[in-house]
Amino acid sequence: MKRPFILTTILFCTLLASAQNINGIWKGKLVMEPGGCFPVYNMELQIQIGGTRITGTSYHYSDTTNYVKEIFEGVFDSINKSMVIEELRVATFRIPADCIPCIKKYSLTYHADGKEEQLRGSWTGKTMDNKSACPPGTIVLTRILKSAFTPDVAPILIERKNELVKEIMVDTGTIKLDFYDNGQIDGDTVSVFVNNHPVISRQMLTAKPVTTFVKIDMKRQMQEVIMAGENLGSIPPNTALMIVTAGDKRYQLFLTSDEGKNALVRFIYQKPL
Question: 135 and 15 in one domain?
């Protein structure tokens, strides 16, 4: 078995100050019980907060070349300065072959002594394949100013032409995308990016869907989804069938990617009539 890798005016001002205290980048050590790849992991949480809702990105890493990047959401209790954060999915990872990413849930509290700010608490988790629990542990994070990770655009998006396949008007907040091999199953492997952020990494396409969801940012009218073929399969080029479910509407698109191009689909949000 693979090992886990691992809100009156005064009240309003209090809430706002607490929220501002939490926004930012936090770094520290994540400690787990015996059974993981390493006894201690470096950890970084990039937190954004609006009201009581927390969103952001987490990094679990031994160094910046061996890491797991995950997307999280959570809820903030400003009275108790506590929060619960749950990782939703793995965005991308580069870790040893005998390890598997762990999707975690954190219970944290905010502490400040005038010199240093910390988030402290505990965590539990399950492996990405949902087959087993990760050894639980503790976590202490300190606010930092600069992330260890530079937000980069994947080379595969820069080196190839991103060819527009279709623009689709949507009026719903969440879009479901299902990817299948188009035709004969021949080992086609793809990565999928939403607004240049990876949501599917090097997944082989079969007759069973590889599924991801696109959440529409109401402040961003247009969302771009790019499918990049990671290989050509045994029958070039790399082809995929993408089924789009947007509310009560359904679309079927055939995407092609090779060493010179990726397939781009653009979703444009329109308010419902």
Answer: yes
